[in-house]
Predict the 3D structure of the following.
Amino acid sequence: MTGTHTTHGARDHARAQGGTVVEAMPTLPASAWPAPPAGVAAGDLTWAEVVAGGNYTNKLVARGTTIRLTDLAGDACAHLLLFNADQPWERLNVADTVKVPWQAYLGAGHPLLSDQGRVLATIVEDSSGAHDALCGTTSLGVNAARYGDGAPQGPSPAGRELFLLGALKHGLGARDVPPSLSFFQGVGVGDDGALTFAGSAGAGRSVTLRAELPLVVLLANVPHPLDPRESYTCTALEVLAWRGAPTAPEDPLWSATPEGERAYLNTDDYATARGLA
Amino acid sequence: MSATVARGTVVSDETVPARAPWSGVVAAGHVLTIVDLAGNQAVDCLLYRADDTAERYSAADTIAAQGSIFLTTGSVLRSCEGRPLMTVVADDVGRHDTIGGACSKESNTLRYGHHTHHQHACVENFLREGAKWGLGKRDLVSNINWYMNVPVEADGTLGIVDGLSAPGLSVSLRAEVDTLVLVSNCPQVNNPCNGFDPTPVRMIVTAP
């Protein structure tokens, strides 16, 4: 007997649930996160969340925010989309992200570029080295055929379905969900163009991004499209973010490559004209 | 002209000038043949389901489903929902790109320098031609580059290198559903994708 047959009883029942702790949940305030990264003051944390396998999250973050993604148990796959929060028609362009730096494999120092020749975020640290910018994420029909279901609240959600929900919450729609990239499950390309699924680099690996503009961040934690396992396998993803500054001219990353330097110049030019710098 | 071009009844036959856009709806079952008239001319291409343009070509779904980054005969060009839009039914070249995307004035500034900002670029063609069909900035995604050669080295280094095509070679695409095809006959002059000299291409639609 829960006593929920009256409004007061229902209210008591609902309120009694507050304070429950589960593994996959946001921690608020983020400064209450029990283990801030080394060198980061608890008070600088702006986002602390664990995302279960088969789920997603979204956040609007300030320019300069550092975002660390950690594959807690070794089978996360963090599919990522980024949008300029000021003008979301400017968004992650995976083609430019591999073409402009002349590099198909994501790693430390790699700029994640928009379609406007600007850096949305920079990968500043990477202890995994197993990522993918070619295969995107999964779709409803593909997961239905593969696992028997692909609906966003079903047993085996497709990445695109979760991205779509995240996009809708920012006033965007299906036309705003382009190809994505993913972290923690590696894919290699052979001379003949054939892909090889390399999988995870192991539990506890992390990737750290620096937001170079105000961003809408969409993260879907779902199995990689090439994951060969029969069962839908995806484990928890930890997301921590803290205040920081965008890449500056004195940072070695700024001038590491001529393409990157012009990308940071374009980003700074936009931020200056927009009043963000 | 390749044998493929002559097959079936010609529905339309147009020459796209150098640097120009082109678009058209290819009916389900019809075949679009793109002829590289002068050789090594990149043809940037996007596909949309004609009755619902929110469902569009997805390079990622296409690559993941076939397990390869290169397009050639047998490649199924899939939508963002993983469904077939078109199938490559003939290919004289053997390798086409779908990871390099389109050139833009903005990305040209990164790749070559800010002096290239006011040059022609494929995104300008896609935006202008797409607007005729009610499409806009949000509708542009990673595209196909017919006749463009983009190898990936063992260490991940990739780049647009000299093409494998030659004058008169063609590639033919069968529409699996009514498909809006948006093309930019690439105007890029700063890399070998057009042999540093943009040239016309021919677009022939045939009915079986």
Chain A has one domain: 49-274. Residues 49-274 of chain A form one domain.
